[in-house]
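User: Could you go from structure to sequence for me? I need the amino acid at each position, not a summary. Structure tokens:
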């Protein structure tokens, strides 16, 4: 390889040297590939992602670096997508990447009829995952068993569709554009399939872009070209995304006991049971505690632990 522009070391958001990077994943790249490229770029082994994207799906892929990998369970799980659904076709994967199983005529539809159909998919619904999906079936991924020639009867699972908006309708092509705000575990491919079935003609996902995930948005995303060309983008401070957690700042005398894993008295007023972001006296993230509902904070994740 030829010499590229000189790189500056990334600017850590705190003295713990951990943070987040949001990739704008292009089509054709797996989430695992994205993590590998970030790992090489920053020279870190401890790198993980939040929320797998299929290779054909583009958009927001949050990447945690260093100790921030341990914060992924504390981030909000909801995601937002914009996608295109092709009506009049059924495929083996519920998107246009798969084998076409059947084609049907698309009935005459107008935005009002589409809105009526969409209404039944808002709120909490039961959804059967696509045959080619990452759900576990008897210890194996569903897609592995399907590719080995099996036909699976996957169980329906509850998912939450917080918002489902019709952005556009192309009657001539039988295509509609949607924005979907949903809980973790929702398959937009399955939503496209089920919407097509509800309209009586079948449907498959034509394209999909994730515009928000785990509290991160597309406006924070970095392209693969930016990652490769340097200087490396600075990491995002974990406190910028842990906005839903109550916070308790330690006084100087509490810092050493905290780093030794000792429980601390709670000072946050009216704090229910649940996770709490614990801050050092100078305002950096010291870790995550659990409020026990009895006036104590129990350490669950301690940065710069002693011993």
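Assistant: Here is the amino acid at each position, in order:
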């Amino acid at each position: 390889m030829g010499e590229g522009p000189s790189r500056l070391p990334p600017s850590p958001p705190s003295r713990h040297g951990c943070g987040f990077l949001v990739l704008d994943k292009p089509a054709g790249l797996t989430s695992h590939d994205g993590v590998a490229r970030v790992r090489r770029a920053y020279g870190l082994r401890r790198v993980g992602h939040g929320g797998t994207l299929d290779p054909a799906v583009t958009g927001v892929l949050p990447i945690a670096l260093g100790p921030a990998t341990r914060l992924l369970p504390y981030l909000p799980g909801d995601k937002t997508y914009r996608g295109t659904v092709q009506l009049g076709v059924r495929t083996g994967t519920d998107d246009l990447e798969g084998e076409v199983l059947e084609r049907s005529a698309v009935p005459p539809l107008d935005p009002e009829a589409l809105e009526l159909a969409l209404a039944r998919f808002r709120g909490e619904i039961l959804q059967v995952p696509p045959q080619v999906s990452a759900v576990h079936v008897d210890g194996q991924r569903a897609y592995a068993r399907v590719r080995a020639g099996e036909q699976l009867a996957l169980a329906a699972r509850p998912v939450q569709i917080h918002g489902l908006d019709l952005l556009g309708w192309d009657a001539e092509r039988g295509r509609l554009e949607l924005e979907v705000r949903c809980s973790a575990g929702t398959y937009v491919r399955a939503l496209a399939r089920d919407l097509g079935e509800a309209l009586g003609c079948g449907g498959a996902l034509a394209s999909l872009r994730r515009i928000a995930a785990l509290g991160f948005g597309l406006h924070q995303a970095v392209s693969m070209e930016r990652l490769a060309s340097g200087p490396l983008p600075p990491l995002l401070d974990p406190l910028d995304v842990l906005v839903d957690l109550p916070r308790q700042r330690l006084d100087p005398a509490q810092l050493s006991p905290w780093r030794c894993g000792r429980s601390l008295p709670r000072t946050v007023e009216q704090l229910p049971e649940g996770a709490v972001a614990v801050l050092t006296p100078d305002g950096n993230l010291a870790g995550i505690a659990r409020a026990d509902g009895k006036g104590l904070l129990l350490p669950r994740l301690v940065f710069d632990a002693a011993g």
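One structural detail worth keeping in mind: The first strand starts at residue 19 and ends at 25.
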